[in-house]
Structure formats: C-alpha cells, structure tokens
Amino acid sequence: MRNLKLQSCKQLEAKVSNIKYLLLDPNANRKECDSVVYVASDSQLFEVKTNIGAIKELAAVPGIVAVEYLALNNEICLATEAGEVLAVSPETGTINESTFCDVGLQNMAWSPDQEVAAFITKTNNLVVMTCTYDVITEHVLKEQCDPDSQFVNVGWGKKETQFHGTEGKTAAKKTSDFKPPKNVELIPQDIEITWRADGSYFAVSFVSLQAGRMFKVFNKEGDLKYISERWNELQSPIAWRPTGTWLAIPQLFPNKTTVALFEKNGLRHREILMPFSLIDQPIRSLHWSNDSDILAVESFETSTKKQHIYLYTISNYHWYLKQVLTFDEADPVSCHCWDQRIGEEKTMHLWLKSGRYFIYRWRFDFDRFERSGIVAVIDGNKLLITDFSTAVVPPPMSSGEIQIETYINACAITKDNRHEMQICIYDANEQLQLFRIKGSGNMLKFDNICTLKRGHIELQKHIAPPIEIGNFFWFDESNLVATVNIAKTSKVLLLSLDMGSKTYNVATSLHLSSNAVSSCMGFATLEQCFVQTINGKINQISLQSDNTLKLDKSYQQMQQSALRLEWHQTQSAQSDSLISLLENQRLYIDGELVSGDVTSFCLAGNYLAYTKLTELKFVLLSTRQHVYSRNMERGGRLVTTIANDARVVLQMPRGNLEVISPRVLSLEIIGQLLDQNRYYEAFNILRKQRINLNIICDHNMVNFVNNVHLFLNQIANPHWLNLFLTDLQNEDFSKTMYHSNYVTAENVYPEGFDIASKVTYLCELLCSYMTGSGDDRFRLPIITAYVKMGKLEEALQLIWEVKKYKNELAKETTEPVDEAAEEALKYLLYLVDVNELYNVALGTYDFGLVLFVAQKSQKDPKEFLPFLNELKKLEVNYRRYKIDEHLKRYEKALENIVKCGREKFTEALDFIKRHDLYKQALKLYQVNGDVISTNQESRNNVLECQQEICLAFADYLRGKNDLESASIMYERGGNIAQALLSAKHVLDWRRVLMLAKKDSQDVATIALSMMPALLEQGKYEVAHQLYKTYGTNFKDALQCLLKGNLFLEAIMEARLNSDENDLLEGLVKPELLMYSRQLRQQFVDDEKQFLEYKQRLNDVRILAQQKRDGIVNGYDQCDIDEADLLSDTTSLRSSRYTGSSQGTGKTFRSSKNRRKHERKLLSLKPGNPFEDIALIDALYNQVVKLANQQQRVRDTCKALLELQMDDVATALQTQFGVLLALLQDSFDAIWTEEMVNAQAMQYKPTPYTDYTKLQNEQRYAVLAPHKRFKPQLNLIDWRCEILACDH
Fold it and tell me: Any idea which UniProt keywords this protein has (predicted)?
C-alpha cells in the first residue's frame, strides 16, 4: 500500500561527458558522496567535485571495459580490452598494474566483500581470482551448457521436485516449449556478471551455441553449481536481487514483455509484466536497490529516442510500477547506479550525457487523507484507491481505480470546501490531473475535473529533468506546495492551479539555503506549512496577504532528516504539535523524543499510533504519555486509521493487511457516544469489541444516573440489559482497567454513592424504573438485578406472582396463555444453581413454589416428595423450624422453635448448645419480648428457660476460659457458688466480695483467702487494701507494699497510722536501704557488662576489618548456613561460599527450628561468626533495660528523701545519671554509619557487584529491624532537683 515518494532531487553539474561508469565511495557520508564522485569513459578516469565543478583526471587508459571502486584498499580497479587490470589511487593518482590477460578482457566484476574478482576474457572464458590476483579457477562458458550434463544432481531443485500449484503433478512432466535459435550470431554477444549480495554466488549471462541466451551460477571458488533451464528470447541484462531470492532477466514473448525471475537453481520462478514491448523498447540494464525493495529497469525507446527508467516494488506478490523517469534524446542518461551506503539504499545517482549529475532520494510512504480511510496506491498508469471505512479490500485489489494515459509518479488527497474528496495526480509528463471521488463502499467512482499542463516557469532551466519536484502536497483547494533542489540550495514552490487556462504555474517561491528533504501542511487557518532541509532544520513558512511565501522562523532543529512530518491540529492552537519520524527511526513530538526504533506512525484522533518491530503503541497527545500497547506481527506498518470506527489498518511485510480495533480508540468513540447519551450505539460497540460494560456507567456516573430512563428506553433488547447487569462490579473501571482513556478525568459520583456498593446502588435504581414501567420486557432484567443483589427470594416471588396471575387468567379464558413464568424460571435456573434455588424456594415455606421449582429443575421426585410430605404433617412453627434447620438458617430456626412454646424447650436447648446460639436465645427468651406472652404462667416458664440458658451459656464460657463472663452467667442462672468460684479464679476481688455477701458467706474470710494469689500476681496495692480492711495486723498490710517496693506508699501508710510509727524505723527504713543497695549494685553490674560487650564489639570489628584487608593470615571463613535468615539478596554470595564442603545446606523450613537457629546465631560465645551481631543485640537490650529504670530510681530517691537519707539518694541518683550518660555517649560507636547505610541500600546485582562486601553488609539482616538503629530513649524528668550532684 506504500508509494515511492521523491524526497529530494539534487541537481549538480560537471563538464564531463560520454560517461559510462559512475563510482561512489561506500564509506563516505552523504555530504562527501554528494560532492565527490568518480566517473570513467572509454579511455579516461576522473574525480569530480560536483559542488564546485572541479574535474581532476586520474588516469588515461584506452579501452576501459569495467571499473570497480575497492573500498578496502581505497583504490579504483580498471579493466581494459587489452587485458590490463590497473589499480588507481584516488588520492595520489598513481597507477599500478595488478595483473594482465594476454587474450584481452571484456568484463570484470568484484564480489561485494571484495575478496574475489570474476573476469571474462575475449575468448569467452571465465577466470576467478583472489583479491591478490591469484587464479582460483578458469571455466569455458560455452561448454557444459546442457542441464543434463551437470556432474552432480541428486534431485534437489529439479523441476520434477517443485510444487506446481493448480497445474498439478502433470506440470512436472510437461515438455518445454523451447526452440533452439536458428542463427545464434544475430543475438547480442554481451556477457554480464552479477553477484549475490553475500558474495557466496555469482551468475554469468552469455550466449551458447545450443541454447542461445542463458546463465550459469558459480560459487565463490568458481565451481559451477547450476545452469539455467532453456528459455527463448532471454536478453543480456541480468541482476541478482541482494536478498538472493531471484535473478532478474528480461524476456520477450510473442504476446508480452516480462522481466523473468529465476531462482538460484536456474528454474524460472515468476515474472514482472512490462508495459512495453522489447522490440520497440529494449531493456538496457537492470539494477536492484541495495535493500532489494526497488528494481530499476532502464529501457530505450527506438521510435522517440527517449530513455526510461522504471522503478518497481513488490507487495503481496504483486509488482507495482511506482515511478517512471523519462529522458529526451538531447540529453540521455550515460549511467546510473544505486547507493550502497547504509541509510541511503533508496538513493539513485544518474549522470547525463551533458555532464549533469542528479541524486534522487526516494522514501516509502502511504498516500492517505487524515482518518477518512481513503488510501491511494500507484501502479503504473493506475491509481488504486481503497476506502477502508467501508470494506477491507486486500491488495492488489481495490475499491476503485483511476486509469490515465501516462504513468503516475505522485498523488495528493484533500477535501474541498464542499467536503468532497479530491485527488491530484502528478504524472510522468509533468501534468496535474484532478479527480473527484464519488460514491462509497466497494464501488468508488471518479469524476475527471481537468488536466493541467505545466505553464511557463522561470526556473525551467534548472528543473528540466523528470519529477524533479518533491514533497508534493495540497496547500489549499487551488494551490499545491512542492520543493526543488538546485546544487546546495532549494526552493519552495507554490503551484497555482488555473482551471481556466488548464495550466499550473509557480505563483511564488521561497529560497532556502539548504536542500529540502521533507515537508507537511501546518495550521490551515493561518496558511502555514513546514519544510525541513538536509541540515535538520524545520522551517515554518506561511503565505502572506500579498500571495508570497515568507519564512516565519526556524520551528525546530533536528539531528537528522525526517522521513515524514505531520502536523497535529486541535481546537486549541496551543495544543498543536509537529510530529516527525527521523531517518534513525526516532519519533519526536515538537522535538521531544517519544520512542526509538519506530517504523511508522499515524494520527488517530487524540492519539498518536506508531509501530515498532513487533509492537503497536499509542501516545495520548495531550499528555504525551504512553497509554496502550499490544503485540503484532513482526515488521507490520500502519496504513491508516478510521475516525468513526476505531479501526487501525496494518500492512505486514509480505503485503497482506490486518485490521484491528485497539481498545484505546474504541473507548474514545464510546466516550463520545456516552457524552451524547447515545447508549444504543455505545452498547453495540462494547458488545462487538468485548469491552466491559461497566464503562457505560463508570464513564460519567452522575450523567448515567440522571439519564437512566434514556438508557432503558434505548436498550430495547432485554438480553442486552441482562448482559449489562451481569457485568456490573463494585469497581470503577475508568480508574482501573481503562484508566488510560481517563488520565485527566476525575469521576464525580452522585450523592450517597459508594463504589463499594455500586452494584446494589445501580440494581436498585434500575429496578425502581423497570418495575414502575410495568413493561413485561423488563421481567428478566429485574430477575437479573435481584440475583446480582443476592435477593433470590424476591426473584422467585416475582416469578411465582406471574405464575399465579397466568393461572387465574387461564381460568377466565379459553385462549392459550404464554408460559412467561416457566421461561423466567428457566432463565433464573441458568443464573443460579438448581439446588440453591430449590433451597431458597423451600425457605419461603410455600410448598406450591417449591414444587414449581423442583419440577422445572429436573430434580428426581424421590428426592424431595417424601421430605415435603413429612413437613406437611407438622405444626406450622415447628415445620418452619425443621425447614430452617435443614437449610442451616439456625437463627431463623431458633425463632420458630421458640414460638412452639415450653414443650419444645428441651429440643430448643439442645439446638442452642449444638449451634452456640446463646446470645440469640437470651434475646428471644425475655419476659417482655414480643415472641412470649406476658401472663404469669408464661413469665415463670420464660424465667425458667432463661436460667437454664444462662447456666448452659456459663458452662460454654468456662470451657472457653472466659471465667469473668461465666461468673456473670452463673449468677443469672442462680448458681452463686459457681459464680463466686469463677470470679475468684480471675481475681475479680470486688465481684468476689459482692457474691460472698450475696451468698451469706464470711466476707473477711473470703477476702483474706485471696491474699496469696494477689501477691503472686503482683497486685500488692490490692492485697494491702484487703489486709487493711479485713485483716487484724497492720504490719502484714505494710509488708504487702514493701514486697512490691512501693516505699512511698508504705511511708505514707506508716505515718498516717499514729499507732504504728515504730514500724517506719524498724521495718520500712531497713527494707528501703537494702533495696537501694541492691539497685546500686545492679547498676554496677550492668555498667560492667555493658563496657565488656562494647569493648568486645570493637575488638571483633577490628579483627573482621583486618581479615578483609588481608592482614590476618590463615583465617577460616564462616559457613553460611545462615543464608536463609538473610534477605533475598543475600543469596548472591561470594564464590568462596559455593564449595561442596560448605555444609549440608540446611533450609530451616520449620519456624521452631528457625527461631532455634536464630538464638544460635545470636550467641555471645567468642568465635561465633555472628558475634558482632549478637553483641549489638545484647547491647540494645541492655540499653532499653537500663532506660526503663528511670521511674524506679525517681521513686526510690523520693522515698529516701522522705526518711532524710539524702546521701544515699544522692549517690543513687548520681550513679544512675553517669550510667545514662555512658549509654548515650556510646551509641555512635555501637550503631555505626556503616549499619545505617547498609539498611538504606537497594541491592541490585550488576556485573561489577562485590558479593563479599554485599554479604558482609547484609549480615545485619539477622537483627530485628528496630535493633539496627540507635535506640530512641524515652527520657522523663527522673531527677530530684534538691539533691546535690557529685559530678
């Protein structure tokens, strides 16, 4: 579907004529290659600097028959008729004779890798030499010309083994129509050589006495491999496609002229039909472009003496004629060749007889109009037009075609003021032909508006060659823009179309200082366009009011030339952007890189679609963010996009088309339809594209809720509504699955709406509208909504009401009644499992409904009839109890059995115990409850039942070890003794005393019996209070406080009791002094231990550093069985831990074993490989333990002050203050900067990762996370300010 467009035609001049050979340096860049070329005539070799016209003669050798530029040696190889092979240096001009053939030479061709050269002598012998001119082999061409005389033939590649398609196997036995030529001498005796691009094979075309024109295929060593099959009227030009697939040779038939394509084995494969006859227009040469995309066919028209160069491309097994260059007799083409440099494969160099030099640069691109689906393909004198908006017509077929008398070289599509598509065709005769597209679909029609000839142009002397104008596009309805390059400069031409005189002229032009390479239309309203020059500068050009072109500014500066430019125009001019795809396959939007390795792009509304090698991607132009990506066949390219159908047309490398509907484009169209409340069209697209239907409401929830009546009116099909309701989920799909289309959108929800209850909200909303309408078509959607909300019983009741209504209607009329209820039930059974629905029906207690469901569900009557018959015999409430118990609706079953009265209480109590329904039972068995009557007898029965439930509940709670709650239940059940015992077990002393008094027991005895347990649990103040209240010895009460080290409370109690003041000196003071001494001794021990741990940690770290530095010799690395305890990255261990002797590879899968192993790792035993980690853990615990002593030290010092022991208090406070300062000053030495950095690092292995260092840093993973950092001490005001400090 791509056309071959002229990117630029550079025109240069040099006063060298009658040139036969044109040489290029394949290693030169574009600027050097365009400015310096080497040309040769029959007797001279020149270096031409085309930019200044300087000519330098390098060699004067008569009888030159072949010339090659040897890039590896930087020399030019000449072959002469006399047999000389000369090497000429382009830099110095020195000439050296490389070899000599005494019989003379008539042709020479070097392999592409320049390792082997093939020579044809005047005796028609083939000589193959190395690059040092050592003979490899010599072959007589006119011998061994019979295909059957080949010395090796195992059947591979023979015609008999080929597949012949529809012709069948008989084609293999079909005899050839070949007739030996009558007079071989009349056939041109030229011998041509062509190499395959990889240099493995070459072919020689020659004339044999038996078969006429034929060719032989040799390998690189000169061994004959294949001989072509015999065909009549083969011509001398031969060209091997660089990819190696075919050899192209012209061939004349009685009724047609072709370029035959032969395979390597010499069998004819297919052909290219030529639009002329070889008799009237013989083919002089064939040249493949270096990328094998284009075949150039040079011919000479004998009647008019004109030369033509036809450019063919292949797609989907069809050969398209894309360009035709025509040259007059006055200045014909002397020679031409394709560029072999990378990136310049579609560049052709031509040298005319007069010395004029042209460089044509082509590129492949699609001719399309925006998103209309119209695509035009050039094929000779036909323009094939396909409208992809209505049908996908595979090439080479099309929706319609325009056929003219001359060859088509370019076309442009636009839309006129009447919104009709208009096509301008630029033909090989430099005429413009205008057509208007009529009709649509598969049958397009075209009206020829007029044909415009070229008018007088003042620059005609510079633009005489064919199709010299490039970058051809519509500017407006009556003007076109094109560019023309002259030497180093270029001109932008505004071509005015004059319908009256039927001519087109240059209305105005703009001179640019560099060659133009690409262009595109800009902002149409401002009449702007963009033209890029070869230096990468993109110029913004506008049409002024005086009808002249003006260079506004340099819009952008790109690194390379652009293959394609396109302007994206929006409603807001500030959002407009220029999109460019450079030759290095990089895609830019206003100079901002979007992606690399891009093969094609196309605008798709608010999105930019582009392809990479195997991906199709979309960029939202407003944010320039990638929003969608999908895989595709390798090498696919974008053909066009269709505006209103969300379709994208892709062409694969072979030429076949694929049409897809990317979700991102479909959602854009769906969003537009939903904004217009066109729910039917949006729903239809969603179904076809299989897009989740939640987007109908999630697109704009407020709008959907407000227009739900429109939605229900437009969606007349109930199955569509069922589909919508079934798809509903408690999720906003505009923020999850389809967030790419709602990047900037923030959905606003209706009042009272919650996304977690979205399904219920919408189902209730739709149900309210559907039930209110009374339309029968909503019956199934209502059922679906009920199912979606989990209201199966309501759905069944709806169906049952319809069934009863239809039954009543059937009684009143003799006409048949529709089975709406049966159909509804059948649909419901499709949504819900039959057993579940049967249980729901049973739960309604309506046996008629149960039988209706059971009959339609195909259940076996033996399964349900006996059960239903048994239920019918029971009392109503008890029947419902049995049904609910069967359905495992235990709470409802309990309600029903409660209604059965006292006689069923025993069964009810067992049911309560079995299903742990104690709380529900207590609510139901209440005296003032709604279920139970309130007469005296009933009240007594209820109280008895309640007490039994409470006792059962208490036993249940005691079994759960909830003795506190069990005590309450025992009390309510009347078992005070058990309630007291339960309260006593949990030391609820207040309740124990209360229950003891209620049970008329001795409260003091009960209280004192709790003393040992209270003291054991550390409840010293409670024990003191009970001793004080119920005991007889104040000393015992005071001892409770002293046991808990509550000295301040003890001092207060002793002083308040005036009769026991002697206890203060005799009991409290000694205990306080002893405790203060113990506390001070503990601090001494803790300080000593802390300093020992700290010093040992320092020693361990020094030793570890010495080992890493290699100071300590002969040490053994630890076994890393501990790797499982480290983070995931610690599996990247040093190679010295991977030996087979490193242990048994324990995994510590069990959590118990893991904790045991962690304790082993954190052992403080010297020599432990993780001793430093264990020391840090111990130090952290020591710091936390000592910091928690602040309140205890404060209370002890206050108690000492109360007893006027200031010296002891001062010593204790001073000692603890020094200890705290020591702890804080040691933090930096313990928790080093290395530990902090190790926690912050993200371990991502690279080829340069030091795994030994990595493992050492990850050792800290053994520590608990909070212990890897300095402790955060919660310091309080623990000091007594009245005490003097010794430091």
Answer: Cytoplasm, Nucleus, tRNA processing
Per-residue pLDDT tens over the stretch 461-491: 444 555 567 888 888 888 889 888 877 788 8
Could you tell me if 432 and 445 are in contact, meaning their C-beta atoms sit under 8 angstroms apart? no
What lies within 8 Å, CB to CB, of 70 at 6+ separation is 76, 77, 87, 110, 114
**Which helix (H) or strand (E) element contains residue 861?**
helix 861-872
Which ranges constitute the DSSP H helices of 1017-1134?
A: 1020-1030, 1034-1043, 1047-1056, 1062-1063, 1069-1109
End-to-end CA distance of the chain: 95
Confidence (pLDDT) at 1178: 87
Hey, which of 521-535, 681-695, 1067-1081, 1173-1187 has the most confident mean pLDDT? Answer: 681-695
Answer for the pair 105, 63: CB distance below 8 angstroms, yes or no. Answer: no
- What's the pLDDT band for 1148 if we cut at 50, 70, 90? very low
- pLDDT, tens digit (0-9, with 9 covering 90-100), for 972-982: 888 888 888 88
Mean pLDDT calculated for residue range 577-602:
92
- Tell me how far apart the alpha carbons of residues 46 and 357 are, in angstroms, rounded to a whole number: 14
β-sheet bridge partners, residue 251? 234, 258
906's tokens: 């025993």
pLDDT at 463: 47
Query: What is the number of alpha carbons within 13 Å of residue 605 lying toward its C-beta?
Result: 20
In sequence order, the 6+-apart residues with CB closer than 8 A to the CB of 464 are none
Average per-residue pLDDT in the chain? 83
Per-position DSSP letters for 1156-1180, written without gaps between them = HHHHHHT---TT-TTHHHHHHHHHH
Tokens encoding 467: 């199709």
Amino acid at 1199: A
Token pair of 1065 as six digits: 């000196």
Residue 184 has what DSSP assignment?
G
Angle between helices 718-727 and 779-788 (to 10 degrees): 10
CA distances from 247 to 143, 886, 919, 1218 (A): 22, 86, 95, 99
Q: Which residues contact 1147 (CB under 8 A, 6 or more apart)?
A: 1124
Can you say how many angstroms the Cα of residue 416 is from the centroid of all Cα atoms in its chain? 40
Q: Tens digits of per-residue pLDDT, 1041-1055?
A: 778 777 777 777 777
Amino acid, res. 748 = V
Q: Is 627 in contact with 740 (CB distance < 8 Å)?
A: yes
CA dihedral 1249→1253→1256→1261, nearest 10 degrees, is -30
Closest CA to 884 of 893, 896, 876: 893
Give the CA count within 13 Å in the CB-facing half-sphere of 1169.
Answer: 14
Computed from CA positions of residues 1175, 1177, 1180, 1182, in that sequence, does the dihedral angle turn out positive or negative?
negative
- Per residue in 1200-1258, pLDDT (tens digit) is 887 778 888 888 888 888 888 888 888 888 888 777 665 544 444 444 444 445 455 56
> What DSSP letter does each residue of 1190-1229 carry, written as one string?
HHHHHHHHHHHHHTT-HHHHHHHHHHHHHHHHHHHHTHHH
pLDDT at 99 over 80: yes
Determine the pLDDT at residue 1251.
43
pTM to 2 decimal places: 0.72
Identify whether the C-beta of residue 210 lies closer than 8 Å to the C-beta of residue 197.
no
Sign of CA dihedral 1017, 1019, 1022, 1026: positive
Tokens 């309130």, located at residue: 934
Radius of gyration of the chain (CA): 50
Give percent helix, percent strand, percent coil of the chain, each to the nearest 5: 35, 25, 35
Residue type, 454: R
- The more confident residue out of 554 and 1038 is 554
Tokens describing residue 1056: 């308040």
Please give the pLDDT value at position 687.
Answer: 92
- Best CA proximity match to 1076, nearest among 1188, 1203, 972, 1222: 1203
The residues that bridge with 531 in the sheet, in sequence order, are 519, 539
Do 929 and 964 meet the contact criterion of CB atoms below 8 Å apart? no
- Peptide bond before residue 396 is cis, with ω within 30 degrees of 0: yes
Strand 445-454 relative to strand 503-512, pairing: parallel
